Amino acid sequence: MRLTLDPTNVNSVLSPWAERLRRHLNLPLMVQWQGCQGFRLGEFDTPRVVLDVRDMTGAAALLAPSLDSLGRAYVEGHIDVTGSVQDIIDMAHRLSDHGAKEQGEGMMRRLIHRIADATSHTREQDRKAIQYHYDVSNEFYAAWLDPAMVYSCAYFETGTETLAQAQEKKIDHILTKLKVEPGQTLLDIGCGWGALVLRAAEKFGARCVGITLSQNQHDLATERVRAAGLQDQIEIRLQDYRDVRGPFDRITSVGMFEHVGLKNLAGYFRIIHDLLAPAGWALNHGITSTDPQNGETSHGGGRFIDRYVFPEGELPHIGTVLTTMQEGGLEPTDVESLRRHYARTLDCWSASFEAKAEHLKTLVNDKHWRIWRVYLVGSQWAFEHDEVSLFQVLCCRAGKNAQSLPWSRRWMYENSLKGA
Fold this sequence. Notes:
By secondary structure, the chain is of the alpha/beta class. It has 17 helices and eleven strands. It has helices at 7-24, 56-63, 67-75, 85-103, 106-112, 123-134, 138-142, 163-177, 195-204, 215-227, 265-275, 301-308, 318-327, 339-355, 357-360, 366-384, 411-414; strands at residues 29-33, 39-40, 49-53, 79-82, 185-189, 207-212, 234-238, 248-254, 276-289, 330-337, 388-397. The strands form two sheets. The chain has a seven-stranded mixed beta sheet, sandwiched between helices. Strands 2-1-3-4 form a four-stranded mixed beta sheet. Helix 4 crosses helix 16 and helix 8 (163-177) packs across helix 9. The chain is elongated and about 70 Å long.
């Protein structure tokens, strides 16, 4: 329901608010509404961002600004914004930060963020959540991802690589960490469109099983395996990880455990333990919270993501990851932070998304286009500013003799970053 704008009401409500922000923040932001001149929120010749209030719901979002309320108002069409997407997200954060200081966010952040036990993560819930995000359309993702359609953090050895080069290096880095050898069996939990299993089979000679809950991903990955002539080495399954039977010499989980749920992490790692051959190795690559209490990102950003992007998603702190991994019977042997790498990856995705804006609008409705637009640039900001992080954790079955463990990490870098 759209509450019609009344210019008199808008003036009386927003004028004091705008004056207060002008004094405290001095933002290069113009707030306006249909047929009216609007408010300048700072001293400037030309605004970097212009925000159009379309109705009273949009005005209300400005009066109590958070990343959730502003993002929701934008996605639902209660406000429009013009300006570079980087400037837009910067203005949203500065407004939200000021709003939090005025209203007091400290304890509310703990009270509002979802309690882990409230999310059951049944098989049906997980299937629907995955399909909601990944089954938008393959063409939509192909328009702004790299040619291999790798939808996870890339690995930039020097920062000068193209996105495609960095994604290939990421996959090689993972497979080299795992010491994948010809003839070994590899399970990829959450295989996406098949890039990792294709690389593992082609370059490393592994026999692979890739599983996903997305029909679109399953179909395209299967097609890519067939096109590469690797049907004898790779099987793509539409399957829940809880239904897989092992053992496997190597297991990868890339960008998947965020969907498992905090209370289910130990069980998830126990399943990986049970699927892993006694001498096997596994690697978990996933986004983590930087809040030691596993809380959401500041100013309601996590609530926006949960509502519009990743329903049922939950981010653990790296401490929680390591604890639940051990509870699941696995020993972490190497931990690597890739926070800077994901900030760069998202910068590449966001730039590509903006460059393809008109084409993307022909593939999805306006609401979905707005959701992914702010999600990509907002996530980039979060990684840049230590709101979230990403870790690769290499592990094996706990209780192994120390003689079976490596002396150093040298093998991870001697070959993995040289490319094909």
